[in-house]
Write a structure and sequence with these properties.
Blueprint lengths: L3 H16 L2 E5 L5 H11 L2 E3 L7 H6 L3 E5 L5 H17 L3 E4 L7 H14 L3 E5 H7 L22 H15 L2 E5 L3 E4 L5 E4 L12 H13 L4 H25 L4 H14 L2 H7 L2 E3 L1
Parallel strand pairs: 1-2, 1-3, 3-4, 4-5, 5-6
Antiparallel strand pairs: 6-7, 7-8, 8-9
Length: 280
C-alpha cells in the first residue's frame, strides 16, 4: 500500500459500494443523464428531482445532496434553496459545484448565496472557478478553466495555498480539479492527485460527473477522503479509457463509453497500481 490516504480511499469506495447510497443531484440538463449513469456505474443510485415542493422528502431518502449551478432559472434556484435547507436540517452532506463562477455577475451572486445558505461539506470546481470564489480575477472561458490556472509540479504549492485559503474561509473541503487535482480541508490539510488524461476534457460534463461521484463518496465517508476518492477514481478511469482508445485507434465517442466501463469494473488493485496521490 503506497500510503494511508490510499488505504482510506479504497476503504471508502468499498463502503460506498456496499451502502449503495441514493444521491440527489440538482444538476444541469446538459449532463443530467451522464451524471445519473456515472452514479450507477460506480455503485450508487441517482435521483435527479428538481421540483421545490418535494425536496424535503427527496433529501430524506438520500445519502447526499449535489448542487450544480449549471442551470440558473428561478424554479431550479428555488429547488436548490429548498434542498439545501432540508439537507442542513437532516444532516446530509452537501456538495456544491460552482459551475461558471467568474463568468457572470449572476453566477458569482448565486455562488455566494449557496455557500452561505448550504454551508457545503465539499466545494468541487475547476481551478478558475475556485480562484473566482476566492475573489481573484480570471480570464473567463465560460464553464471551462483558463489555461492560466493550469496546476503543474512547479506551481503546485502556490495553487495549494489558494485552495487552502478558500477551505479555511468557507469551512468546506475544497477540491479544485485539473491536470493536477488539489484537495484542501479547513484544518489546513492538503493533498494532490495526478491521475487523469487530457481526453477527459473532450467529453462534456466530466466535471459534473465528478461532483456527482463526490456526492456518492461523501455519503459513505468523511468529506476530505470523499473528494480525493472521486478524483482518483475518475482519473484512473480516464487513463484506462485513453489506453483502450489508443490501442483500438478509436475516438472520443469510444473514450466516453469506455470511461463508464472502467468506473464500473474498477478494482482495489487498480487503485493500488495506479493512484498518484501526494500528501502535503
Amino acid at each position: 500500500m503506497k500510503n494511508e490516504m490510499l488505504k482510506s480511499i479504497i476503504d471508502l469506495v468499498n463502503n460506498m459500494k456496499q451502502k449503495k447510497p441514493i444521491v440527489e443531484c440538482l444538476t444541469n440538463r446538459v449532463t443530467i443523464n451522464d451524471c445519473a449513469n456515472m452514479l450507477l456505474a460506480m455503485g450508487a443510485s441517482p435521483i435527479m428531482a428538481e421540483i421545490e415542493c418535494e425536496m424535503t422528502e427527496i433529501v430524506s431518502v438520500s445519502g447526499a445532496l449535489v448542487l450544480n449551478l449549471g442551470l440558473l432559472d428561478e424554479p431550479y434556484l428555488a429547488a436548490m434553496r429548498a434542498a439545501a435547507k432540508a439537507a442542513k436540517e437532516q444532516g446530509k452532506p452537501i456538495i456544491l459545484d460552482p459551475v461558471g463562477a467568474g463568468a457572470s455577475k449572476l453566477r458569482d451572486r448565486v455562488c455566494a448565496e449557496m455557500i452561505e445558505l448550504a454551508e457545503p461539506d465539499i466545494i468541487r470546481g475547476n481551478m478558475s472557478e475556485i480562484r473566482a470564489l476566492c475573489g481573484g480575477s480570471i480570464e473567463s472561458r465560460g464553464v471551462d478553466a483558463s489555461s492560466d490556472d493550469e496546476v503543474t509540479d512547479e506551481n503546485r504549492d502556490e495553487f495549494g495555498e489558494l485552495v487552502k485559503s478558500l477551505a479555511e474561509k468557507t469551512g468546506s473541503v475544497v477540491c479544485a480539479t485539473g491536470a493536477i487535482d488539489v484537495i484542501a480541508a479547513p484544518d489546513g490539510k492538503v493533498c494532490y492527485v495526478k491521475n487523469g488524461h487530457e481526453m477527459l476534457c473532450g467529453v462534456t460534463g466530466t466535471g459534473c460527473m465528478c461532483s456527482a461521484m463526490t456526492g456518492a463518496m461523501a455519503a459513505a465517508g468523511d468529506p476530505f477522503t470523499a473528494a480525493a476518492a472521486a478524483v482518483v477514481m475518475l482519473g484512473i478511469a480516464g487513463e484506462q479509457a485513453h489506453e483502450y482508445t489508443a490501442e483500438n485507434e478509436s475516438g472520443i465517442g469510444t473514450f466516453k463509453v469506455k470511461l463508464f466501463d472502467c468506473i464500473y469494473l474498477m478494482s482495489d488493485e487498480d487503485f493500488i497500481k495506479r493512484a498518484k496521490i501526494i500528501e502535503d
